[in-house]
Amino acid sequence: MPRLWTAALLLAPLLACADEEKDQIVTDRPDFVESSNVVGRGRFQIETSFALDRNKADGVKQRTYYSPTLLRFGLSDTVEARIETDGRMRLVTDEAGKRVTQNGYGDVSLGVKWHVADEEGARPSLGVLAHVDLDSGSPAFRAAGRGGSLRLAAEWELPGDLGLGVMPGIAWQHDDQGERYAGGIFGLVLGKEWSERLRTFVEYSAPRIARGRHGGSVTTFDIGGGYLLTDMVQIDTALSRGLNKNTPDWSWTVGLSIKF
Questions:
Q1: pLDDT attached to residue 138
Q2: β-strand 108-117 against 125-134: which pairing, if any?
Q3: Residue 81 forms beta bridges with which residues?
């Protein structure tokens, strides 16, 4: 993980010099539905955050602290490379008067995003994302095997400064027993731009759609927003409510994104 940050810091000024074009940052956070757009040729963008999950079930309380981070590198005007991780993680479990704390790093995911088409008429702006999930994290947070996903991001601009985003997808993962399975992904978000700087959203997300024997589906209702400090710097926050027993009761995040 330290090597990942070192590489990002070394690459940032080089990529910034490659393209002095002044545009406005568009992020893939804090909502679950990804943007259909890419960062642009020669550009680098970091989207990092602090996140907290809280859950209580069968007398067991759990809190997970982590630092989701996404690095985006512009390969062309329509394609970007991506490195994503939950970063540094800390899981605190309280059960029967005993507390157990586990620390480590999350897995790393490598991917690409292709901006397929701009919005035109009834056709939405379209992007395709393909990721490979590596079982590379610390033992306490490592997946049972390598996985991957393929997602389609579609976005429409609506009257009244509203925007609609939809993201269906499919994922290949391993459950807790190590059995490989294919599951679904889905997200639906409605956003509102209140000014050139401020936007908010409401969202339904299903990061995992799976049968019960594979751990079941994970679904949330999310609200949040982002604010542009400058054209290249965004701060954001979001709150999520779990909609079933497989999902943490509450999740909260606050983030910072910078485009170079």
A1: 98
A2: antiparallel
A3: 73, 112
| CATH 2.40.160.40 assigned to 2-259 | yes
Q: Write the pLDDT tens digit of every residue in 204-233.
A: 999 999 999 999 999 999 999 999 999 999
**DSSP code at position 213:** G
Cα–Cα distances in Å, from 20 out to 77, 259, 260? 14, 11, 9
Judged on CB neighbours under 10 Å (0-12, 13-18, 19+), 202 is middle
Q: Which of 194, 236, 260, 259 is nearest to 32 (CA)?
A: 236
Residue carrying structure tokens 């997946």:
143
What's residue 141's pLDDT? 97
The whole-model pTM stands at: 0.90
What pLDDT score does 17 carry?
43
Cα separation, 39 vs 47, whole angstroms: 12
In the three-class reduction of DSSP (H, G, I as helix; E, B as strand; rest coil), residue 104 is classed as strand
Sorted by where each begins, the domain ranges of the chain are 2-259
Nearest CA to 134 out of 126, 124, 144, 125 is that of: 144
The pLDDT of 190-210, averaged and rounded, is: 98
Phi–psi pair at 6, nearest 5 degrees? -60, -45
pLDDT at 176: 87
Exposure of 182 by Cβ count < 10 A (0-12 exposed, 13-18 middle, 19+ buried)? Answer: exposed
